[in-house]
Amino acid sequence: MLHKTYAVQGLFTGKKETLPNGQESAIRKKPTQTLILKSHRIQDDTVVDQRFHGGDMRVLHHYSEKNYQHLKKKFPEIAERFIPGSFGENLYTNELSENDLCIGDIFNLGSAKIQLTVPRRPCATLNNSYEDKRILKEVINCGHVGWFYRILEEGEVKISDHLTALERPFPNLKITKLFEQGYGKEKFKDLGFLKACYETGLMDKGWKPKLEKVLKILT
To answer: Does the pTM of the predicted model rise above 0.85?
Structure first.
Protein backbone atom coordinates (compact mmCIF):
# COMPACT_ATOMS: atom_id res chain seq x y z
CA MET A 1 0.00 0.00 0.00
CA LEU A 2 2.83 2.43 0.76
CA HIS A 3 3.42 5.04 -1.93
CA LYS A 4 0.31 3.93 -3.80
CA THR A 5 -1.81 6.78 -5.08
CA TYR A 6 -5.57 7.09 -5.27
CA ALA A 7 -7.32 9.60 -7.52
CA VAL A 8 -9.56 12.11 -5.79
CA GLN A 9 -13.01 11.58 -7.30
CA GLY A 10 -14.97 14.02 -5.18
CA LEU A 11 -14.62 16.77 -2.57
CA PHE A 12 -17.51 17.96 -0.43
CA THR A 13 -18.51 20.52 2.17
CA GLY A 14 -21.78 20.92 4.03
CA LYS A 15 -24.04 23.62 5.40
CA LYS A 16 -26.65 23.26 8.09
CA GLU A 17 -30.02 22.17 6.77
CA THR A 18 -33.18 20.63 8.17
CA LEU A 19 -33.62 16.95 7.36
CA PRO A 20 -37.08 15.53 6.61
CA ASN A 21 -37.54 14.46 10.25
CA GLY A 22 -36.78 17.99 11.49
CA GLN A 23 -33.20 17.33 12.62
CA GLU A 24 -30.61 19.99 11.80
CA SER A 25 -27.49 18.54 10.22
CA ALA A 26 -24.77 19.15 7.63
CA ILE A 27 -24.50 15.48 6.65
CA ARG A 28 -25.75 16.07 3.08
CA LYS A 29 -22.62 17.58 1.62
CA LYS A 30 -22.33 19.31 -1.76
CA PRO A 31 -19.52 19.04 -4.34
CA THR A 32 -16.72 21.58 -4.40
CA GLN A 33 -13.61 21.87 -6.54
CA THR A 34 -11.23 22.61 -3.65
CA LEU A 35 -10.94 21.89 0.05
CA ILE A 36 -8.89 24.19 2.28
CA LEU A 37 -7.61 22.00 5.13
CA LYS A 38 -6.89 23.80 8.39
CA SER A 39 -5.47 22.20 11.52
CA HIS A 40 -8.86 21.93 13.25
CA ARG A 41 -11.38 22.34 10.45
CA ILE A 42 -12.17 22.45 6.75
CA GLN A 43 -12.90 25.89 5.43
CA ASP A 44 -16.62 26.37 4.62
CA ASP A 45 -17.60 23.00 6.10
CA THR A 46 -20.14 23.27 8.91
CA VAL A 47 -20.10 21.16 12.08
CA VAL A 48 -23.60 21.44 13.54
CA ASP A 49 -23.35 19.50 16.82
CA GLN A 50 -19.83 19.95 18.16
CA ARG A 51 -20.52 17.77 21.19
CA PHE A 52 -20.22 14.69 19.02
CA HIS A 53 -18.73 15.88 15.75
CA GLY A 54 -15.65 17.79 14.66
CA GLY A 55 -12.45 18.28 16.62
CA ASP A 56 -8.79 18.02 15.73
CA MET A 57 -8.90 14.20 15.35
CA ARG A 58 -11.86 14.21 12.95
CA VAL A 59 -11.25 17.07 10.57
CA LEU A 60 -11.65 15.16 7.30
CA HIS A 61 -14.07 12.29 6.64
CA HIS A 62 -13.37 9.77 3.84
CA TYR A 63 -15.81 7.41 2.13
CA SER A 64 -15.46 5.44 -1.09
CA GLU A 65 -17.40 4.09 -4.04
CA LYS A 66 -16.37 0.66 -2.82
CA ASN A 67 -18.47 1.28 0.28
CA TYR A 68 -21.36 2.87 -1.60
CA GLN A 69 -21.57 -0.19 -3.85
CA HIS A 70 -22.28 -2.36 -0.83
CA LEU A 71 -25.17 -0.13 0.22
CA LYS A 72 -26.56 0.04 -3.32
CA LYS A 73 -26.59 -3.75 -3.56
CA LYS A 74 -28.10 -4.14 -0.10
CA PHE A 75 -30.86 -1.60 -0.74
CA PRO A 76 -31.46 -1.60 -4.53
CA GLU A 77 -34.87 0.03 -4.14
CA ILE A 78 -33.22 3.23 -2.83
CA ALA A 79 -29.85 2.90 -4.60
CA GLU A 80 -30.24 6.34 -6.18
CA ARG A 81 -29.97 7.94 -2.73
CA PHE A 82 -26.40 6.70 -2.21
CA ILE A 83 -24.64 9.47 -4.09
CA PRO A 84 -21.16 10.84 -3.27
CA GLY A 85 -21.35 13.32 -0.42
CA SER A 86 -24.55 11.85 1.02
CA PHE A 87 -22.74 9.88 3.73
CA GLY A 88 -21.26 13.08 5.13
CA GLU A 89 -17.81 12.58 3.65
CA ASN A 90 -15.46 15.37 2.57
CA LEU A 91 -13.23 13.10 0.48
CA TYR A 92 -14.47 10.48 -1.98
CA THR A 93 -12.36 7.95 -3.88
CA ASN A 94 -13.24 4.89 -5.94
CA GLU A 95 -10.85 2.66 -4.04
CA LEU A 96 -10.13 1.94 -0.37
CA SER A 97 -12.33 0.62 2.39
CA GLU A 98 -11.91 0.06 6.11
CA ASN A 99 -10.25 -3.32 5.50
CA ASP A 100 -7.35 -1.64 3.71
CA LEU A 101 -6.37 0.78 6.45
CA CYS A 102 -4.72 1.11 9.86
CA ILE A 103 -4.88 3.69 12.61
CA GLY A 104 -2.05 6.17 12.10
CA ASP A 105 -1.65 5.75 8.32
CA ILE A 106 -0.12 8.92 6.89
CA PHE A 107 -0.92 10.35 3.44
CA ASN A 108 -0.22 13.31 1.24
CA LEU A 109 -3.42 14.88 -0.03
CA GLY A 110 -2.84 17.72 -2.45
CA SER A 111 -0.47 20.08 -0.64
CA ALA A 112 -1.56 18.81 2.81
CA LYS A 113 -0.36 15.90 4.92
CA ILE A 114 -2.99 13.95 6.84
CA GLN A 115 -3.10 11.05 9.30
CA LEU A 116 -5.86 8.50 9.77
CA THR A 117 -7.25 8.55 13.30
CA VAL A 118 -10.43 6.53 13.90
CA PRO A 119 -13.38 4.86 12.23
CA ARG A 120 -16.58 6.84 12.31
CA ARG A 121 -19.03 6.09 15.11
CA PRO A 122 -22.30 6.15 13.13
CA CYS A 123 -25.57 7.44 14.51
CA ALA A 124 -29.26 7.67 13.58
CA THR A 125 -28.61 10.78 11.49
CA LEU A 126 -27.86 8.33 8.66
CA ASN A 127 -31.40 6.95 8.91
CA ASN A 128 -32.84 10.44 9.00
CA SER A 129 -30.82 11.65 6.03
CA TYR A 130 -31.50 8.64 3.80
CA GLU A 131 -35.10 8.49 5.08
CA ASP A 132 -34.82 4.78 5.84
CA LYS A 133 -34.62 3.21 9.31
CA ARG A 134 -32.55 0.25 8.08
CA ILE A 135 -29.38 2.13 7.17
CA LEU A 136 -27.68 2.55 10.56
CA LYS A 137 -28.11 -1.12 11.45
CA GLU A 138 -26.66 -2.26 8.13
CA VAL A 139 -23.73 0.14 8.31
CA ILE A 140 -22.85 -1.16 11.77
CA ASN A 141 -23.22 -4.77 10.63
CA CYS A 142 -21.02 -4.38 7.56
CA GLY A 143 -18.56 -1.91 9.10
CA HIS A 144 -18.58 0.48 6.14
CA VAL A 145 -18.64 3.56 8.32
CA GLY A 146 -15.86 5.63 6.76
CA TRP A 147 -12.89 7.03 8.64
CA PHE A 148 -11.37 10.28 9.82
CA TYR A 149 -8.06 12.10 9.45
CA ARG A 150 -6.32 14.79 11.41
CA ILE A 151 -4.28 17.42 9.59
CA LEU A 152 -0.52 17.17 10.07
CA GLU A 153 0.30 19.90 7.57
CA GLU A 154 -2.29 22.40 6.39
CA GLY A 155 -2.90 22.76 2.68
CA GLU A 156 -5.46 22.44 -0.07
CA VAL A 157 -6.69 19.63 -2.26
CA LYS A 158 -8.32 19.85 -5.68
CA ILE A 159 -10.30 17.40 -7.74
CA SER A 160 -7.26 16.80 -9.95
CA ASP A 161 -5.10 15.78 -6.95
CA HIS A 162 -4.26 12.39 -5.47
CA LEU A 163 -4.14 10.72 -2.07
CA THR A 164 -0.70 9.14 -1.64
CA ALA A 165 0.15 6.65 1.10
CA LEU A 166 3.40 7.57 2.88
CA GLU A 167 3.78 5.72 6.18
CA ARG A 168 2.14 2.98 8.25
CA PRO A 169 3.48 3.39 11.80
CA PHE A 170 0.99 0.95 13.38
CA PRO A 171 0.53 -1.98 10.97
CA ASN A 172 -1.20 -4.14 13.59
CA LEU A 173 -3.90 -1.61 14.42
CA LYS A 174 -6.54 -2.28 11.78
CA ILE A 175 -9.41 0.20 11.90
CA THR A 176 -11.83 -2.66 11.22
CA LYS A 177 -10.74 -4.29 14.47
CA LEU A 178 -11.26 -1.12 16.49
CA PHE A 179 -14.74 -0.77 15.05
CA GLU A 180 -15.52 -4.42 15.81
CA GLN A 181 -14.30 -3.91 19.37
CA GLY A 182 -16.72 -1.03 19.74
CA TYR A 183 -19.73 -2.47 17.95
CA GLY A 184 -19.27 -6.25 17.63
CA LYS A 185 -20.69 -9.05 19.72
CA GLU A 186 -17.78 -9.08 22.18
CA LYS A 187 -17.31 -5.41 22.87
CA PHE A 188 -14.03 -4.03 24.21
CA LYS A 189 -12.55 -7.44 25.04
CA ASP A 190 -9.06 -7.22 23.50
CA LEU A 191 -7.48 -4.99 26.12
CA GLY A 192 -3.99 -5.27 24.65
CA PHE A 193 -5.20 -4.05 21.26
CA LEU A 194 -7.30 -1.29 22.81
CA LYS A 195 -4.38 -0.12 24.94
CA ALA A 196 -2.19 0.07 21.84
CA CYS A 197 -4.87 2.11 20.06
CA TYR A 198 -5.15 4.47 23.01
CA GLU A 199 -1.39 4.94 23.23
CA THR A 200 -1.20 6.20 19.64
CA GLY A 201 -2.69 9.46 20.92
CA LEU A 202 -5.05 9.44 17.94
CA MET A 203 -8.34 8.57 19.61
CA ASP A 204 -11.03 11.23 19.19
CA LYS A 205 -13.58 12.53 21.68
CA GLY A 206 -15.90 9.64 20.87
CA TRP A 207 -13.49 6.71 21.15
CA LYS A 208 -11.11 8.09 23.79
CA PRO A 209 -13.50 8.10 26.80
CA LYS A 210 -14.76 4.63 25.86
CA LEU A 211 -11.22 3.26 25.94
CA GLU A 212 -10.35 5.12 29.13
CA LYS A 213 -13.36 3.53 30.82
CA VAL A 214 -12.60 -0.03 29.74
CA LEU A 215 -8.87 0.35 30.39
CA LYS A 216 -9.61 2.06 33.72
CA ILE A 217 -7.45 5.06 32.84
CA LEU A 218 -7.88 7.99 35.20
CA THR A 219 -7.73 11.42 33.56
So the answer is: yes
